[in-house]
């Protein structure tokens, strides 16, 4: 650890698998063979830790070491190859089987597999930089290598932990031990033999003694009980004894043979010759007899022949438009393609290196030096996942014919060249045993399962004489690994003898390659129903049904976790073709296929421009802000060692991104993901991301811990700065390097998580949720965020987004919170003016600044309007009466000279309209100007209203004047309903308002003491400040009365009006009795910042020192409780804070903004418990208990308050014994049921009438 501290890089703690999967658990490898993959996980952990340690030590020493860099590179190349095969085995074997039984679990892990390759590339890039800059003596390149290794180590470790927590328990639960063993054997048979000979001994060398014994026993139990296979497995396990030198492993498969020396070393180690055998004996000119390599032309002929037959059959399909055998042909082509890929690898790695070392007078053309995989790629694209369902079969066959024609012409030319020049020359210049070894080694480049298929297929093309010549090679006698040679020869004998039938071979191929062409079976089935061009429909259906029957049988076998066949362990050498495509031709695969179908076959994340149409895409805004700050943390941490000025900003950004990530993760886990998984098709799809959230919190904790250590270190330094000699270890620079390392790892893990979430989950929200459902999800997510958190998040988001994104996000938030007081709350605490600008983009703000206008200004304006309108109406009436008019016989008023009279009147006084004299009371205070020129003195100075009118009796008005003023208000088109109600209220209370204004003007606070300027006590004996409502250390100066009260409730109890808490600006400290600006502490020096209360809300001006209170940003009120997201959430539809137990409830828009029907208290601002009735109406719980003592119906809608079935049965029994008077017998009455709202008729009764539809007695007579 000393070396690690000196380098400033923290050694990554090795993560342990879950306890249920650890060594010593009751479930062992024999009982659960699938846990064999945990041994692979352990080997990866140990190797990554060792490579990181080597890089850390190199960074500490400085300088350059060629041998070390080469060793690290070789070990990483082997590690990459091992991880690729491990991931491919999970994707193509384990995960495919699990996905058949448990949907949506493995997609996220396949995405993570695909993203790991870029991390390996970054490591190799650093190693290349080290090699190119070897002459520069610096530890910086090594330090960068440490960072890259740390990133890939953290990512893979977290991935493996998630698998061990979620996937492996499911595998053990869903599959029997026999089925698990079958999948492990299939995995082993899909890895090239030469790699398997390196993988298994390397893993065993890392395990403990006990684990080695259990591992070997498990491998023996997994392999079939055939003698030759058991001997082969033993040779793999005990073949190579290497401790941890992985750099020399897998070289033959990765790089092939090198020069003479390498070939001789490899050859003499695997062939039964002495190690000191001379090189001349190996490369000896052959003068006679048949050469072993001459038999390769038989294999070439078989390949060419089968490809030509397949092409001919495709031509016939295209001509007759019958595709019943298409799936079988595609399976054969997949087999041929896989065989040729490995043959190409053997040529490049085995035969061509030998060819290059042999002396010759000519060279082959450029194209013959390797099998061009680009030629295979076009064919593979059609044969694998990229063949899409939307392509009609006819077009698919047409494309397949074209690709196969090109491929066949190219492969024929290439194989002819090999047959004429390459292999004859090798046969002439290499000894017989050398040729045998080359053939044997080339076969080892194949997986065991594919080798068996290839030998079985090849043997069917051999004549008796050709078969004998193949068997006469005697590979068993010429190589050291006799079990492998023996089993290869045995397969040749068995295949040629006919023990393996053609039908069984085709079934095996169908099973091995079923996953890569299964789409064809369904497509053939669909087109068979629609096609009317079949020449022999009966024959087609019979053939197709047989094909589908075979497929379904295979699929059924894959699905069954425990069956009779499993109990006998009857499985043969298997193979998964997709695994090797992952490693050798990954570009031909569209990984994962399930995800591609959901996300339109695109791995590109959606853009924020989608935000305008889909509410759930606002998550992209959160992701963008998170990524921007994560980028900054990586950048700032790299500069902290040179510039301490970054420290404060780094701490602020770290705190913001940590808070935002925790809130965002919790909202996804609690709201968004459960909503997605509620859809039947997407169950389990988000569990991987939930585990990510839990593990990623640990990264923030580690980064915060290192930052705290840096802060403590800086505090401990002398005043002359960091550079002071003798400061204690670890130094500031080393801590900064450690912090930077952790930031890089955290950035990689979180960025991958965000990217995968945007690829896999967000498209599902957009496609399967309506706009209203998405808005509800966003509302639920916001409804669990506390006001204090929002006050940090919103400015942080605004600083991270462009203007357009800001407006889009705020528009969405306003839409979601339109039933709440969110806009009002936003305008009360954010003072930067951004909210007002963005409010224009959304709906007009619901805040009401016009309430602050002087009430008497409003009264005088509309009083003047009313009197002018009254005067105008009176004048018009008198003018008409004084005119010459007469009453006609018909009773109509006849006016002579009517136009003249009206014109004269218009000249005298223009008729007034309310709109002409209305002064708009808008949202902007600058527009709130009223023309009161008639209320000015001689000098033109406008007098206060109460000064002009004098006493309140001067504001007395007749009923006609009041009605006229109210009519002007109601007719004003520029006022909404809320403003009209407020102005009418001011008109009705104008005398009281004027009296209050006069009293305020006569008061001289500078000379007189403010009323109430003395302390008040909640408990006089204990001298506890406060009142019976609140415990606090201050009093509030009411803005309406200019009087001191301990709280607004104390004010409301003695005054005839209510105190507006939000307009309070002054308070008095009850210790020093000084009136001051309201705040959480006393500003007087003598009080030494005495706290006014443990809780203070600057919006509600609320102080309390004994209860848990929180401010809801959507109610814009303080409420009792721990807070949103803890013991409450806010429903955006009901506009109410609710207990988490009410997550599922019936929503009614703004249902809490109503009055209790019993006590008439406003429910929204009430602190008493509320009872929700079945009908949806609300009342206080106490009122409900009192009311239900004598009533059982809702006082608003008259529906029954509960299940009254027993009560109605009692009434039935009572009425059955009651006799009706004879005069009313048989009479019926028309009724309306309050419960079912249906009309009906009931027997006559003076009180009780039963509904004939629902049986309720809650009815009324019509």
UniProtKB/TrEMBL annotation:
Domain RING-type: 1156-1198
Domain CHY-type: 1020-1089
InterPro entries reported for this sequence: Hemerythrin-like, RCHY1_zinc-ribbon, Znf_CHY, Znf_CHY_sf, Znf_CTCHY, Znf_CTCHY_sf, Znf_RING, Znf_RING/FYVE/PHD
Matches recorded under Gene3D superfamilies: 2.20.28.10, nmb1532 protein domain like, Zinc/RING finger domain, C3HC4 (zinc finger)
Cellular component per GO, a single term: nucleus
Domain of life the protein comes from: Eukaryota
GO molecular function: ligase activity; ubiquitin protein ligase activity; zinc ion binding
PANTHER family (alphabetical): RING FINGER AND CHY ZINC FINGER DOMAIN-CONTAINING PROTEIN 1, ZINC FINGER PROTEIN
Signal peptide: none
GO biological process: intracellular iron ion homeostasis; protein ubiquitination; ubiquitin-dependent protein catabolic process
The keyword Secreted appears for this protein: no
Residue intervals of the CTCHY-type domain: 1092-1155
Alphabetical UniProt keywords: Ligase, Metal-binding, Zinc, Zinc-finger
Name by which UniProt lists this protein: CHY-type domain-containing protein
SMART domains for this protein: RING (SM00184)
